[in-house]
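Protein in question quoted in full.
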Amino acid sequence: MMKALFLVMVCLVFMLLHGRTTKSHNHNGEHYGTLCDILATAVQKWKSTNNPTAKKTLSQAIFGHPNGKGDPSKLDLPSTHLKPGNRKNWCGECMHNDQESYPGKSIPHDLLCMCTVGENGYPFIQYSEVRQLCGKGAKELGCDKDAGNAERCHSDNNKHGWTESNWDGQASKHLNATWHAIVKACLRGKPKPDVDKARKTLLQKLDVGEYSTPSWAWGHSGCAGGNSDVCVGYGSWCLEHPKEYPQWWKTLYEALNAPDLTQTRMNATTTTLLNHTFDDSGEEEEGRETQGASGEGTHHDPSRTRQRHKRSSHAVSHIIKEEDGTMLLLPRSWLLGAPFLI
């Protein structure tokens, strides 16, 4: 009896250890899968939707700007990444006036941060149990020429990887490998995308609150490419300066939830947008004239600024409503206040 109980205990311990080891073999595998599925769904939605507001939001997530064109599956590594900058600045914070490359600019950029090998080829370093990064091996991610072991990214005088101090041609080689091995597959989209699943995933992965960040950014510091630091993170600066650093994940749920428009609604939406644009311009001009007449130069009245901001937000909320009250897009404030299912 005791012998049988002992054997059962040994088997349980082995199963637990085996589960942990298997999971550790694929660094960032789960988070990569989450982002890849969301990107593939966004691509299909972008191709099919005629909702102009949703299309701009989806374009930001795919292309990194609101006016993307062409076939996403044919995109090459962005020219900015041919000579990559400091990995910490590009993947871990938005504080360096670099509005071309920052965390949260697009899903492809964030995938490059999460899935490009780091310092000395991390996580494919000597004695590591990791065999994959985002589901791909060392050879597929640019370690084929110099690695003495097919499962490692290690050699004498190793200069592998992209870090905060190493962003030369070697780093560019790894970024290009990651783009073709990982990002391109996600950009191809899905024949039958599961939009409901993508929306549910976003709700589960986003935390509640104005200063929250997705769960795939948790548990890291810096994201500079060092050991255990191959990741993407969104600092408070990214969230506090949305105009300078638009964050794709803050508004994507709304775009995935947006219905297609009838021709009548498209015409009405365009007309409403133009009318509110002119109204907002008139209000701001009036404010400038009043300010000049007061003799206060360039002094800004905070209360007046807040009022203009409220009017602008009010205009946007009307743009996304038809006269019958049907929502074309959920307002952004709904996403920030939703009871996310963590």
